[in-house]
Amino acid sequence: MFLAIKELRHSKTKFMMIAIILVLISWLVFILSGLGNGLSTLAAATFKNMDADYVVFEQGSKASMGKSLLSNELSVQLSEMPNVEAVSPMGISMASALNENGELNEDKVDIAIIGIEPGSFLEPAIIEGTGLSADQPSGVVVNETLKDKGFALGDTFKLDGSTESLTIVGFVKNQTYNHVASVFTPIEQWRKIAFAAPGSDKGVAEPVNAIMLQGKNIDPKAIHEQLPGTDTVTKAAAVQGISGYKEESGTIMMMLGFLLVISAFIIGVFFYVFTMQKSNQFGIMKAIGARNGFLSRAVVSQVFVLSLASILIGVLLTYGTAAIMPEGMPFALDPQLVIVYAIILLLISLLSSLVSVRTIAKIDPLKALGRVE
Questions:
Q1: pTM for the whole thing?
Q2: pLDDT band for position 313 (50/70/90)?
Q3: How confident is the model at residue 232 (pLDDT cuts 50, 70, 90)?
Q4: DSSP 90
Q5: Which stretches does DSSP call E strand in the chain?
Q6: 103 to each of 106, 113, 155, 158, how far by Cα in Å?
Q7: How far is CA 177 from the centre of its chain?
Q8: Which is it for strands 230-234 and 210-214: parallel, antiparallel or unpaired?
Q9: Tens of pLDDT along 336-352?
Q10: 149: which DSSP letter?
Q11: Neighbour-count burial for 275-298, b at 16+ CB within 10 Å, e otherwise
């Protein structure tokens, strides 16, 4: 470590150039991580935040709410299944909101209407106003982002293409679905909206898109055997079934993967070139008794110090960037992901330095001493 620090101080300009590149790479990795997390949150926050463990879909729907249609009558049978602690139906449909008086917003606002049973474990925590009530079927609780669109507590709005009117009775936080604000309504009201057209419910009694389950160690196969025509998946699998979620997440992960691979090559090449430039110095040190292990530890320590400092600066720049980003930007930094990617970047840097370590081990002291530059 002493030798590594000594050389870092002596060749400041050379190592500063590498540090800048490492800072930019780590900064970009953390920015992409935040964007990916922000997009996935917008797409599936409602599902992720629900206190459910399993979801029952119609068989063949591929865990997609839009392709599934079940009868709520199955809830009684599901509640009697082993390890099932609680059952609650759920429905989702996309719509556009229009304020009745036209003063609060000029444009249509895309929303996701989430039908749930008032007071069930699916109802999110209220941050302002009151929760859902079966006595007020037209009352809804909405995500707080609708405030930015001009909606306020007590406002009544209509749905584009529907005669139904909904009144905001409460606000919730971090509730979005398919990149739009979630609007929670009693399940009966949701049915009126989703199946307003005659025959759209396909003759299913008390139709819902899915039935959410609470409970550990629930056996999906046992449910399928007793309730043919259903598929039971974990909540995580249901999140993956959201339209476009898997593709969106896959794109971000592919970009991050390529960036990490490129960074490994860049770091490896830089330190390999520096090692080759100092081959005669390493040869002299080996000639006077320095072992390969000592020189290798010096190089690895050098990479460790430089990478760690650069990654920490990248983290600081990322949080600084997040602070000045517009509120509408889908950017959400997860501290756990930041730590994970920081460790990955550090490991990649250390592994890349092994190319230099191998080069040092092959240096012949006699040839290095006789080298003419």
A1: 0.80
A2: very high
A3: very high
A4: E
A5: 54-58, 70-71, 86-99, 109-116, 128-129, 139-143, 156-159, 165-172, 176-177, 180-186, 207-208, 210-214, 230-234
A6: 7, 22, 11, 13
A7: 13
A8: unpaired
A9: 989 999 999 999 888 87
A10: G
A11: beebbbebbebbeeebeeeebbbb
